[in-house]
């Protein structure tokens, strides 16, 4: 697995520049094509039909304003990625809402880079709190989430994989392979593994460690049973071992058509302090 | 990118030897470790019970006979694998039924190889008719289904990829990449695709062609209209191209819909004449 096309959500949230920087660095390492995409937030149906006859200039003004904001985000993206020396990069502006637009574009990328939403951000960063979850659950692609605060100049040397034997975790690990292969040391941690439990077998973590070793990944296995909730335990362990990337499955429970996030996933999405790669 | 671990379902079906030969060819092409897994047919839950205690629900002599049967299957596979010169091969006896056993082990492999269900096979009879479907839907890996009759040498032959813009097709393509990069020509076919429709954009197929080109896979894009039976159209096109492999997303529609109304996946699984790689 290699990343050949990396899609980056370009918006005007506070830590967007850090997201662009991180993506550019990764694209350079992987020699991947970088695509910055900004959405106006206006659904395609509205912009494809001339609905503004008689409605006045007010609506047309809103549409123009939304387009301007998107252009602004893309200009910043181009600026940051050019300075970072990303190999091949392009920008795209779409008349679409972020949810649909990103899921659609993600089909044609190996990885999507998104910003962690910040509920306290009064600007764009606080608007679409469930955007990352939606993209991960519905696009079929892995997402790399960049925290809404902080700088991550050196990352990916010391990944932590939160492993519980689930299919989602397997998908995240597979999606992270290009990063895991480059890392100096990868830790696979299990938080509540029972020996002989369904996914774990007699020696929890041994099977996945072997699978990873065959892919050229240097891996160590840790068991970290926890009485506190798993999400916090994961972040706590990441801090303790100095992990600079977290890899974990994104859990959604079906409720008819709507997927509701699992607890650990919600905790990590809300309080992450390091870049997180998630897949569903 | 290459497969590093291939998991083959080892059983006594008529097509088992041809299936092993195909798996061996792939293992060689990909420099992968081949795991031949034979299941006793007795679910692991029977052995274990909910409270972790062993349950003597099955007469010991019958359980032993089941194990011996699986071991015999593995011995046959080992002998054939050696004749075929497979470099890295392992025989694994699994105390489980085929559904659970294959699904659980799929976590630790990059690709699963199973046989097409054969209602008339004296060894399996009408049992396990939905095994391929179960594994496709419940494992997180691409599944290569091998027709129950015939022998297959996909090397040096073109590959047909059926593309409809769905998440399932996206997963199938990503899962098939190690095979696509080695194929002697790849055709991406769109059946009944409309320009400008949600999944496809203005030039159906162009986006996925570009995505693949960046992975070193250069494709021809072909569009066809069908009379409604997309499954048959896929197989007919594969035949006329002389394709050694068909790649497609599985169960893009709700399963109850496919069961009631028929669907491409069911058609292909029932009537395939060439190996098919599916993902969900």
| CATH topology label of the largest domain in chain B | Rossmann fold
Q: Distance between termini of chain A?
A: 17 Å
Strand content of chain B: 15-25%
Q: Based on the structure given, which CATH architecture of the largest domain in chain A is correct?
A: 3-Layer(aba) Sandwich
How many domains make up the 3D coordinates of chain A?
A: 2
Q: What strand order characterises the main sheet of chain B?
A: 3-2-1-4-5-10-9-6-7-8
Could you give the distance between the termini of chain B?
Answer: 20 Å
Taking Cα atoms only, what radius of gyration of chain A do you get, to the nearest Å?
20 Å
In round numbers, the mean pLDDT of chain A is 89
Strand order of the largest sheet of chain A: 3-2-1-4-5-12-9-6-7-8
Structural class of chain A: alpha/beta
CATH architecture of the largest domain in chain B: 3-Layer(aba) Sandwich
- Indicate the structural class of chain B: alpha/beta
pLDDT < 50 stretches of chain A: none
What's the number of domains of chain B? 2
Largest β-sheet summary of chain B: 10 strands, mixed
User: N-to-C SSE series of chain B?
Assistant: EHEHHEHEHEEHEHEHEHHE
Largest sheet of chain A: 10 strands, mixed
How is this structure best summarized?
The complex is a heterodimer of chains A (280) and B (280). Chain A is of the alpha/beta class. Chain A has nine helices and twelve strands.
Can you put this structure into words, describing what you see?
The complex is a heterodimer of chains A (280) and B (280). With 280 residues, chain A is of the alpha/beta class. Chain A folds into two domains: 5-146, Rossmann fold (3-Layer(aba) Sandwich), CATH 3.40.50; 159-279, 3-Layer(aba) Sandwich (Rossmann fold), CATH 3.40.50. Helices cover 40% and strands 21% of the residues of chain A. The model of chain A has no long low-confidence stretch (mean pLDDT 89). Chain B has 280 residues and is α/β, with parallel strands linked by helices. Chain B folds into two domains: 5-146, 3-Layer(aba) Sandwich (Rossmann fold), CATH 3.40.50; 159-279, HUPs (Rossmann fold). In chain B, helix 6 links the parallel strand 6 and strand 7. In chain B, helix 1 crosses helix 3, helix 4 (98-105) runs parallel beside helix 5 and helix 8 (230-241) crosses helix 10 (264-271). The model of chain B has no long low-confidence stretch (mean pLDDT 90). The chains are: A alpha/beta (280), B alpha/beta (280).
């Amino acid at each position: 697995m290699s990343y050949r096309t990396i899609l980056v959500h370009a918006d005007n949230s506070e830590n967007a520049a850090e997201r662009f920087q991180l993506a550019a660095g990764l694209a350079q390492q992987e020699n991947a094509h970088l695509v910055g995409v900004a959405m106006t937030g206006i659904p395609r149906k509205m912009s494809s039909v001339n609905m503004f006859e008689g409605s006045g200039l007010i609506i047309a003004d809103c549409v123009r304003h939304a387009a301007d904001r998107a252009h602004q985000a893309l200009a910043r993206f181009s600026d940051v990625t050019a300075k970072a020396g990303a190999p091949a990069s392009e920008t795209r502006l779409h008349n679409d809402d972020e949810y649909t637009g990103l899921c659609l574009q993600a089909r044609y990328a190996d990885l999507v880079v998104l910003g962690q939403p910040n509920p306290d951000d009064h600007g764009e960063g606080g608007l679409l709190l469930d955007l990352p979850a939606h993209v991960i659950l519905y696009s079929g692609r892995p997402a790399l989430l960049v925290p809404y605060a902080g700088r991550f100049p050196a990352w990916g040397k010391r990944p932590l994989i939160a492993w519980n034997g689930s299919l989602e975790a397997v998908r995240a690990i597979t999606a992270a392979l290009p990063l895991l292969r480059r890392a100096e040391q990868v830790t696979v941690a299990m938080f509540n593994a029972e020996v002989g439990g369904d996914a774990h077998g007699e020696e929890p973590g041994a099977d996945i460690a072997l699978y990873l070793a065959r892919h050229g990944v240097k891996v160590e296995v840790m068991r970290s049973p926890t009485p506190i909730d798993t999400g916090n335990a994961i972040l706590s362990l990441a801090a303790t071992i100095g992990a600079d990337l977290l890899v974990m499955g994104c859990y959604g429970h079906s409720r008819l058509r709507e997927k509701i996030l699992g607890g650990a996933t919600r905790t990590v999405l809300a309080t992450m302090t390091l870049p997180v790669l998630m897949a569903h | 990118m290459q497969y590093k671990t291939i998991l083959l379902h080892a059983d006594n079906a008529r097509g088992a030897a041809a299936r092993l030969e195909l798996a061996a060819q792939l293992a060689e092409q990909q420099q992968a470790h081949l795991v031949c897994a034979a299941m006793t047919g007795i679910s692991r839950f029977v052995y274990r019970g909910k409270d972790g205690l062993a349950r003597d629900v099955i007469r010991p002599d019958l359980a032993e006979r089941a194990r011996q049967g699986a071991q015999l299957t593995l011995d046959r596979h080992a002998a054939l694998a050696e004749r075929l010169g497979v470099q890295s091969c392992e025989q694994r006896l699994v105390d489980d039924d085929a559904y659970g056993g294959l699904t659980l082990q799929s976590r630790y492999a990059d690709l699963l190889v199973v046989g097409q269900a054969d209602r008339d096979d004296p060894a399996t009879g009408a049992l396990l008719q939905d095994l391929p479907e179960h594994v496709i839907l419940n494992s997180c890996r691409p599944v290569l289904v091998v027709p129950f009759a015939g022998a297959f040498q996909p090397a040096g032959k073109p590959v047909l990829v059926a593309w409809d813009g769905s998440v399932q097709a996206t997963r199938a393509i990503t899962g098939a990449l190690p095979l696509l990069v080695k194929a002697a020509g790849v055709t991406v076919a769109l059946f009944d695709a409309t320009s400008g429709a949600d999944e496809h954009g203005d030039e159906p197929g162009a986006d996925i062609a570009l995505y693949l080109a960046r992975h070193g896979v250069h494709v021809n894009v072909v569009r066809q209209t069908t009379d409604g039976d997309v499954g048959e159209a896929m197989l007919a096109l594969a035949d006329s191209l002389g394709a050694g492999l068909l790649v497609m997303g599985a169960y893009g529609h709700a399963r109850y819909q496919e069961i009631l109304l028929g669907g491409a996946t069911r058609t292909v699984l029932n009537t395939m004449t060439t190996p098919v790689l599916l993902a969900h």
